[in-house]
Design goal:
672 residues, 3 helices, nine-stranded mixed beta sheet, mainly beta
Length: 672
C-alpha cells in the first residue's frame, strides 16, 4: 500500500503505453505524408497533361498518325511556374506527356503520363483516365522507357528535352536467352551492334523485331533473314539502319512500318508480298532494285532524302500512273522509273526526251540499275549529255545507242550487260572505270581508250567490253600511238580465262587492273607464260620481275609466289580466292591490303627477309563473305616487331614480335 505517487511497475506500464501510442502516431503520420505526396505527384502530372492538351488543341502540335505514340518531354510544355510543379520527393529526372490520335471525332486524342524523379519514384506509361497514386513505385536503377507504345501502335515519335524530334518504331528488348528462341544473329563487338541473320518460322507470322539483344543494338537485318516465312505483319525497330537483300521477300505482308533512322533497303527486300501501301522515312537514302516488286501498291511518296532508286523497284504493282522519276525540282535529270515494263512494246525501253518542255540532260547514278531488261533495247534521247555511275549496270541490255551529245559516262554506267555493238561518240570527254566492262561487244569499241577534251588518247586503255574472254592479246598500238598505260580496274571483274599478253610498250599499270580473273598465265612482254602474275612496269617500258603487282589467277588452294619476287605491292592478291600462300625468302616488302579479301586459312609464314608489312595486309573479317576468316596463325621469322593491329584490322593495340592479336572474328597467334 502506498500513500502517494506511482510504483515502478506502474511507471513502466505508462511509458510502454505512451511508446506504443507514439509509434502508432508516427506510422499514421508517415502514411499521411506518403499518401499526400502520391496525390500531389498525380495532381502535378495532370497539370502537365492539361497544359499539353491546351497546346494540342491550339494547334501547337500536329499529331495525325493513328499508328504513332507521341511523347512530349515536359521541357516543351509551357507552365507559368514549372518549378512548383515537381514530384514531391525530388525534381523530375525524366517526364513525358504521351499523346495518341484516335478515329473518334468526339475525342480525337487520348493522353497518358510517364515519369521518373531524381529519387527514383516513377510511373511507367499510364493512361490519363486510369492514372492513380497506386501506379507510383520506386526504382532508381532503371531508366524511364520513352519508347513504349500506347496500345498496339507500331511507331513512336519523341519530342525530347531540347525540342528535337526523334522518330522510330517501338524498341523491344530481349535477353540472349529470349532472342535465341526465335533468331540467329551475330554480335558485332566493334560498335556493340547486332546483325539478325535468321528467323525461326515456328515463332509465328506476326513479328515484333527486337531493337536490343543483351544490351547490343540491332542495326542490320541481313539478307534472307525472314525470306519465305509466311509473315503477315512486322514491326521493325527504330534501331535498324539496313535491310538486306530479300530480307522479307516471299511473305504475305499486308502492312509494314519502316522506322525513322532506316538508311538502306537492299534489292528485292520486300518483293512478292501483298503490301497495299508503304511510308518511307525521311532518313532513307537507298531503295534497292526490285525491292517492292510484285506487291499491291497503288501509290507512295518518296522523300527528298532518297538518292538512289534501283531499277524496277516498284514493278508489277497496280500503280495507276507509271512514270519516270526526276530529281526533285530538276526536270532535266531522270533518276528512275516507276511502273511495269508491260507499258513498253517490242522490248524497247524508250527514255523520254523532255519533261514539260525541259530537255533531258542527265541520267542519274543507278537510275536503271539491275532493271531486268534482258534482251531489250534501250533508247537514250540525243539530248542526254551525262550518264551517271551504274545507271544501267547489270540490267541485261542487249542493244543501246550512245547519244551524239554525250560528254560524260560514269563508272560502271553500262557494266555487265549483253551489249553486242558499241559506238562511243566523239563528243565524249570522260569515261569512268568499268563503264563498259563485262559486255559482249563484237563490233565497234571493244578496247575502251581514255577520252579527253582533245579527243581519244590511244596511249591509255581504261576498260574492255569485248565478248572474247579467253587468251586476250592487248594491242600494242592504235592510230600510230603506242600503248603506255593500263588504268586501274581496266580488266577487273571480267573472269578472263586462259592467258593475257601485255605489250612491252606499257610502262604503267594501275592497281587492281587484272583483279578477279581466272587466268592461267600472264605474258608480261617476254613470252614467259609460267603463271598468272602481273609484274610492275619500268618507266621506259618492260617490267620488273622482282615487283609483283597483281595476282590474276583463280587458285582456291595454295599459291607459290615465284622466288624472283622481292616486293608484294599494295593490293597484290586483293580479292583473290586463295586459301594459302608460300611467301619466299628474299621478299622484303608486303604492301597494304596485299592479302585483303582473300580466304586464307590456318597459318601464313612471314620470311626472315621482310622489313615492311602494310596496313590491312592480312585483314581478318567475316562479313557477307569470309575475309581470311580461317587465318589463326602468323609465323614471324623476321625477329622484328610489327603493328599487327593495323595489319589484321584488329580492335586492340598489338605491337610485338610474337603474341596474340585480338580480333572480333577469332584471335590470331603470332609465333616464331
Amino acid at each position: 500500500m502506498r500513500e502517494n505517487g506511482f510504483t515502478l511497475i506502474e511507471l513502466l506500464a505508462v511509458i510502454t503505453i505512451v511508446g506504443i501510442l507514439m509509434v502508432m502516431g508516427f506510422g499514421a503520420i508517415n502514411y499521411i505524408i506518403d499518401n499526400s505526396r502520391r496525390e500531389l505527384y498525380i495532381a502535378n502530372a495532370k497539370v502537365y497533361i492539361n497544359a499539353a492538351r491546351t497546346e494540342v488543341n491550339n494547334g501547337n502540335y500536329e499529331f495525325y498518325d493513328l499508328d504513332t505514340t507521341y511523347y512530349i518531354h515536359i521541357n516543351n510544355i509551357e507552365l507559368e511556374h514549372p518549378d512548383e510543379v515537381q514530384s514531391p520527393w525530388a525534381p523530375w529526372e525524366d517526364a513525358y506527356v504521351v499523346v495518341v490520335h484516335t478515329d473518334d471525332n468526339n475525342k480525337p486524342y487520348k493522353y497518358a503520363w510517364a515519369s521518373k524523379d531524381q529519387a527514383g519514384y516513377r510511373i511507367d506509361l499510364e493512361a490519363e483516365d486510369s492514372l492513380d497514386k497506386r501506379d507510383i513505385y520506386n526504382d532508381s536503377d532503371r531508366p524511364l522507357n520513352s519508347k513504349a507504345p500506347y496500345g498496339t501502335r507500331n511507331n513512336v515519335v519523341i519530342i525530347g528535352p531540347d525540342g528535337n524530334e526523334i522518330q522510330g518504331s517501338q524498341v523491344v528488348e530481349m535477353t540472349k536467352e529470349e532472342a535465341d528462341k526465335c533468331y540467329s544473329y551475330e554480335f558485332i563487338e566493334k560498335d556493340k551492334s547486332v546483325k539478325l541473320t535468321y528467323y525461326k518460322k515456328e515463332c509465328g507470322p506476326d513479328v515484333a523485331i527486337p531493337g536490343i539483344i543483351d544490351g547490343y543494338t540491332v542495326k542490320e537485318i541481313y539478307a534472307y533473314t525472314f525470306y519465305n516465312m509466311g509473315l503477315n505483319s512486322v514491326v521493325i525497330p527504330g534501331t535498324v539502319t539496313t535491310i538486306g537483300s530479300r530480307a522479307f521477300a516471299n511473305n504475305k505482308l499486308t502492312r509494314v512500318v519502316l522506322p525513322h533512322g532506316l538508311i538502306t533497303i537492299d534489292s528485292e527486300a520486300f518483293m512478292k508480298n501483298t503490301l497495299p501501301e508503304v511510308k518511307f522515312p525521311e532518313t532513307l537514302k537507298t531503295i534497292g532494285a526490285r525491292s517492292f516488286k510484285t506487291n499491291k501498291l497503288t501509290g507512295y511518296t518518296i522523300p527528298n532524302s532518297v538518292s538512289t532508286i534501283g531499277a524496277c523497284a516498284f514493278c508489277d504493282n497496280p500503280i495507276p500512273n507509271p512514270s519516270f522519276l526526276y530529281v526533285n525540282g530538276d526536270k532535266s535529270t531522270i533518276r528512275g522509273y516507276i511502273g511495269n515494263l508491260s507499258e513498253f512494246s517490242g522490248k524497247k525501253f524508250v527514255i523520254p526526251a523532255e519533261k514539260d518542255g525541259v530537255p533531258l540532260k542527265k541520267i542519274a547514278s543507278s537510275s536503271f540499275y539491275a532493271m531486268g531488261l534482258s534482251g531489250w533495247e534501250v533508247v537514250i534521247p540525243d539530248t542526254v549529255e551525262e550518264v551517271g555511275s551504274s545507271a544501267f549496270a547489270q540490267s541485261g541490255i542487249s542493244k543501246i545507242n550512245m547519244p551524239s551529245h554525250l560528254k560524260t559516262v560514269g563508272s560502271s554506267a553500262f557494266y555487265s550487260n549483253s551489249i553486242k555493238e558499241l559506238h562511243i561518240p566523239s563528243s565524249v570527254t570522260s569515261i569512268g572505270s568499268l563503264a563498259y566492262n563485262a559486255n559482249q561487244v563484237t563490233t565497234g569499241d571493244i578496247w575502251i581508250y581514255n577520252r579527253t577534251a582533245s579527243g581519244i588518247d590511244y596511249s591509255k586503255i581504261i576498260g574492255y567490253s569485248g565478248a572474247n574472254r579467253t587468251n586476250l592479246v592487248i594491242p600494242e598500238s592504235k592510230n600510230g600511238q603506242d600503248l603506255k598505260t593500263i588504268n586501274g580496274s581496266a580488266f577487273r571483274y571480267l573472269s578472263l580465262r586462259g592467258g593475257i599478253t601485255i605489250p612491252n610498250s606499257v610502262n604503267s599499270i594501275g592497281q587492281l587492273a587484272f583483279a578477279l580473273n581466272r587466268l592461267d598465265w600472264v605474258d608480261n612482254g617476254d613470252g614467259d607464260k609460267t603463271g598468272p602474275f602481273v609484274y610492275s612496269r619500268k618507266s621506259g617500258g618492260g617490267f620488273d620481275k622482282s615487283s609483283l603487282l597483281q595476282y590474276a589467277g583463280y587458285q582456291t588452294a595454295m599459291v607459290n609466289i615465284p622466288s624472283n619476287v622481292k616486293r608484294l605491292e599494295n593490293y597484290a592478291f586483293y580479292y583473290s580466292y586463295i586459301k594459302g600462300v608460300n611467301i619466299p625468302e628474299g621478299v622484303t616488302y608486303i604492301g597494304s591490303n596485299a592479302f585483303n579479301l582473300c580466304k586464307l586459312e590456318g597459318s601464313v609464314t612471314i620470311p626472315s627477309t621482310v622489313t615492311t608489312i602494310g596496313s590491312g595486309a592480312f585483314t581478318k573479317q567475316v562479313t557477307w563473305t569470309s575475309n581470311n576468316g580461317g587465318l589463326n596463325q602468323i609465323v614471324n621469322k623476321t625477329g622484328r616487331s610489327f603493328n599487327w593491329q593495323a595489319i589484321t584490322n584488329g580492335p586492340e593495340a598489338a605491337n610485338f614480335e610474337t603474341g596474340t592479336v585480338r580480333n572480333w572474328y577469332g584471335d590470331i597467334k603470332v609465333t616464331k
